[in-house]
């Protein structure tokens, strides 16, 4: 659109012989002859392979037409042409030509491997959707297809480059589609593909995908802003010309060789700024700017000095992305100057190599590695891109649900970032709003899992505190620490979210497995039998577990025990079925075991089947909030359906009602000898309604080495008495008695008692 003409007007004649760049608005080739002109960098042998791939794709798509009425083969040729702009190799060009062959033409992967080799076939397979599989919803199918594509991309980044070229050509040619489909594809592009292009540093592709998505999603708004931008171009021509002349004169005086080009904000970025900051079009001042390209990195800072001597810089509007590159490898100096006419002008300063990465990101690796100098300015972007791709693999390892995986990836596609430092001065880029927990998981998953506190710039902060650019972050860990489920409400990176969920699920599985094994062992002992060993070398036991798993409708022993631990299956029923299977194999009840099961509850052998409560079973064992049991109370366990074990006191009325309704789900539980944490119980304290009463109550509880976890002011019993309802964390009943004695000794306390249902 106007960007190139604007740049051409500003570019000095002597500087217009710069190396050719990818034209983001160049028409994609519609014929193979036009495509071969763009493939001049390939060898004759490679061109021959590409020609064979074209013939194969042409035959496969014979008789197929696009919605516009054109032969379908024009689309793969156009996609290959866009890939050729990035100078992708022959394998990628062949895959681009055949990218729809498996999905639309019934071509199989083995056939492609036989004719064109495994590398091209793998690329095509990574680009193929999973439409032939059965999914419950279109969203589920889409999520799984994204996961497949992104995983293929993590193995070979050419997959996503071809996919972005495919999406770009589709976006350019969507006019013939139905409006609803256009809207859906445009929204998907804006939500997923444009951010991926930005994350990989493909800024030309990123900008055009945003522009096209905006045009299809909001055609009227796009047209109105386009007209306003054209008018603004005419109104500000004098300002632009004045700044250009001044810049050329200043650098000529300094005897510095530069190339100056105009930079115009896209319609979509103007629209987004207007919405985010509630501005009118005339209030957006940085629509036009300049880009100055210099030969070397030190020249960038020299050029900055020249500009700041020429015009006054706007305070707070300078950014050094050379010293601290963006997460996608982008490097430039940004400064905003106040022009003589009172208009702020933004200027970007970079080298030619930085500009290659800024415009083409990870694709610069292919564009320039074959150049005459043999250098690859895309190396930084390649490294940063590989880091992000590895994070996708980590998320995939921790996530089995496609929709959850896609959610994590979307989180990581935020374009805004903060740059923070480790204590050893290593820079980490995190999404805006990231917390110390995100930082901990970005370093290593073990550090995140064992994180207990954090310091920012030497001062202790909450783990949910928001990090800012320039912060030095130090993570404090403890060997026995574990992730807190509440962290999921605050973390911003997909990696942290996936690691926390994975850890919590794993712990829940392990705890449920151990609990289920204890429960089944206890129930089977009541039948006079011992649990068969979990030994694959023990053929009879392995066959027995396999038969029991089939009967229960699960895949293996561990899954069955987890279901028992979570209350999805009743241990007594499973034990009776297992006893029947063992009887069929000639195993008879043992009298001693049967006697222990019924009459020796204190025997060590029987104790192996008891569930001991020590406070560490966070996910599978919960303490009922109605009676709030603490060590020393007589307790019993209720196995809720899919909720794990719920522990009540033996005299709890709610527990008794549940027992009357469903007695089979109750089991024997006991307190462990050494619980690992404090337990909450409810107290009511009546105090004299006098000044300082609450402080004296808190002091008495603290002196008794207990903690108040919640406090509510109850109703006033009269003018002289107030009622405090407290949740107090204590070790056991003995400790609770000490706390209550300490409260009774406090001067304002009239009465104190423990709440029972």
Fold and architecture overview:
The chain has 757 residues and is an alpha+beta fold. The protein has 4 domains: 31-217, Hypothetical protein af1432; 225-369, Beta Polymerase, domain 2 (2-Layer Sandwich); 502-671, no CATH class; 679-754, Alpha-Beta Plaits (2-Layer Sandwich). Strand 19 and strand 20 form a beta hairpin. Helix 23 (494-525) packs across helix 25. The termini are far apart.
Low-confidence stretches: 1-25, 130-136, 370-379, 598-609
Q: Count every beta strand, where a strand is a DSSP E run of 2 or more residues.
A: 21
Class by SSE composition: alpha+beta
Whole-angstrom Rg: 34 Å
Mean pLDDT: 78
> In the CATH hierarchy, what is the class of the largest domain?
Mainly Alpha
CATH homology superfamily of the largest domain: Hypothetical protein af1432
Characterize the biggest β-sheet. Answer: 6 strands, mixed
Beta-strand percentage?
Answer: 15-25%
Give the termini separation.
73 Å
Q: What is the percent of helical residues? A: 40-55%
Structure annotation, total helices: 31
Summarize this entry quickly:
Helices cover 50% and strands 15% of the residues. The protein is α+β, with helices and mostly antiparallel strands. The model is unreliable at 1-25, 130-136, 370-379 and 598-609 (pLDDT under 50).
Key traits:
single chain, 757 residues, alpha+beta, Hypothetical protein af1432, Beta Polymerase, domain 2, 6-stranded mixed sheet, 4-stranded mixed sheet, 31 helices, 50% helix, disordered N terminus
